[in-house]
Amino acid sequence: MTTRRDFLKSMGAIAPAIALSRTSWAMGGGGGGGAGGGAASLNVPVFELPLYIPPVLQPTSSTATRDVYEITQQNATVEIIPGTQTAILGYNGMTPGPTIMVDSNREVAVRHTNNTNVRTTTHLHGGHMRAGDDGHPVDYVNPGETREYVYSNKQLPATLWYHDHTMDVTGDQVYAGLAGFYLISDDYERSFGLPSGDQEIAIVIQDRTFAADGSLVYNDTIMGELGDTILVNGVPYPYFEVSTRKYRVRILNGSNARSYTLALNNGASFIQIGSDGGLLPAPVVRSSINIAPAERVDVVIDFTNVPVGSQIVLQNTAGTGSTSQIMRFDVATAADDGSVIPQVLRPIERLDPAAAVTTRQWVFSAGGGGGTPWVINGLPYDENRVDAFPKVGTTEIWELHNRTGMMHPVHIHDIMWQVLDVNGRPPAPEDAGWKDTFKVPPGGTVRVIGRFDDYVGDPNDITTAYMMHCHILEHEDHAMMTQFIVVD
Ligand code: C2O
Ligand code: CU
Ligand code: CU
Predict the structure, then answer these.
(1) Does 3.40.50.1390 match the CATH number of domain 197-333?
(2) pLDDT value at position 368?
(3) Higher-confidence residue: 406 or 23?
């Protein structure tokens, strides 16, 4: 099958990214990745390496109202599988990149210098920022160039992440390492007494396939690239030592295509306190959590009554074999907890469907003709076509229809939304908070409501468009993407 991307490649329009070993361009069957990847000859340690916590990036300059951060995007070689070297693309040469921690309403500028051999764009996923600072896929930063992205952070505290968003090669370049956390907080959230300090971590779960020499194997599988090895913060199957306290764990599914069903093997539940767009109105107790690519869940795991010496595996009950386990919590010491989980978190103002001025229909399907496997409303992404012009200050309902046999995690840039219903039924409490990524079930429909408060773009400048796309990155790269411009 020839795709738009293959066509672009044949035209030389896509730079060969990095030293990824591509085993083929064949259409994948959607099965387990890594067939022929040679991983069997690699010795991947399980629960032998400590969890890595990316460093918190310090601003290089600050004024009373603004912090400036600098990041250099680099080709780098790192040791992921012990005894081997892996070529990556990394923010500051590491994967995941450094964590940026900011407060709501304080302006931040992040200056990205592209010292890699490929062009990039950088998107802040979950960020609400001026149109034009959103990392539009063709708003390229070429090798050697520096680009300053400005974020107002006029939004609620939440777990965000920054990642590559380059036209046609987002899958390649995120897989190669270009992703990092961006955490927004505020005094209100800090006042709760939630687990914090060494009782708070952020983890990104990613699946990768390694060749026998440790290099990453990426096939750009059109159904969605699935790896056979689970990394947490860039480490295969790490362990994390905890004490008998509660821990706040912000979980990001940073995988290209794999969804996980998270469960603890001691039968304990997660206490979910937040989702994509920040805190839920009240905690939700969940024995398992399904998380699609790009979704975030903010949970508390309670080890206060767990005997010292216990080892608790975070499992993926949706996986088999090497993808059925993720990491392990080792209860190493006894300690006083001191944290609390308030029964009331952050109240959420419900958006009123009667206030919506427009209802838009978006159909996600396969086979649009012209060799394009994935389309929205029958059309492949075209950077010169804008499919919606919502008016600033108005509320809209968007109906996301899935006309395929697989789930698509649909992500909308710019604003946070509320789910009205999934296949006609109101969302579960954990999905009733602010969201930016929606699991649209096979053959199903999700209706979401959102308000376009600000950040008007220029209808004649597509780099001021915001994107909507499937966050299975190979679907996005194979044209399951559209764009909209907020207008006056
Ligand atoms: Cu996380 Cu448009 O992306
Ligand atoms: Cu985004
Ligand atoms: Cu998809």
Answers:
(1) no
(2) 62
(3) 406
How high is the pLDDT of residue 2?
39
Consecutive H or E run containing 397: strand 394-402
The CATH homologous superfamily to which domain 353-484 belongs is: Cupredoxins -  blue copper proteins (2.60.40.420)
Q: What is the pLDDT of residues 348-371, one digit of tens each?
A: 999 999 999 999 999 999 976 666
How remote is the CA of residue 212 from the centroid of ligand 2, in Å?
Answer: 34
Which superfamily, per CATH, for 4-186? Cupredoxins -  blue copper proteins (2.60.40.420)
Residue for token digits 């370049």? 173
Tell me how far the alpha carbon of residue 56 lies from the centroid of ligand 3, in angstroms: 32
pLDDT at 41: 74
Buried b (16+ CB within 10 A) or exposed e, 363-395: bbbbebeebbbbbbeebbbeeeebbbebeeeeb
Q: Give the number of the atom of ligand 1 that is nearest the alpha carbon of residue 437.
A: 1
Among 209, 218, 118, 120, smallest CA distance to 162 is for 120
pLDDT in tens, 172-188: 999 999 999 999 999 99
149 in Cβ contact with 181 (< 8 Å): no
